[in-house]
Automatic annotation (TrEMBL):
Protein name: DNA-directed RNA polymerase subunit omega
Originating organism: Flavobacterium beibuense F44-8
GO cellular component: DNA-directed RNA polymerase complex
Entry's Gene Ontology BP terms: DNA-templated transcription
Pfam families (alphabetical): RNA_pol_Rpb6
Sample GO molecular function, one term: DNA binding
Entries under InterPro entries matching the protein: Pol_omega/Rpo6/RPB6
Keywords: DNA-directed RNA polymerase, Transcription
Keyword flag Phosphoprotein: no
Amino acid sequence: MDLKKTTAPVNTVTYNRTKIEEPTGNIYEAITIIAKRASQINTEIKKELIEKLEEFATYNDSLEEIFENKEQIEVSKFYEKLPKPHALAVQEWFEEKVAYRESNK
């Protein structure tokens, strides 16, 4: 997932309910699928952020020496400005990029 090229909104948006439930025919199923995808996206973003911050980590036992790493701050600011995982999941849902299957069939 390329987070820089996403068109998901950063602010709160009201969506058309019928457009969300259209692929499944059931609003609850659609929301459940979107929620599971948002959880996956959140895990991916968190893993990526931790990996990037680990590159700049300094392991020092002294509490007196606190370093402000500018690169680490910039990485953190970038991830703070990203759309939330649920917004990314809804955007993927509308673009039909979310694969799902019914377990009953």
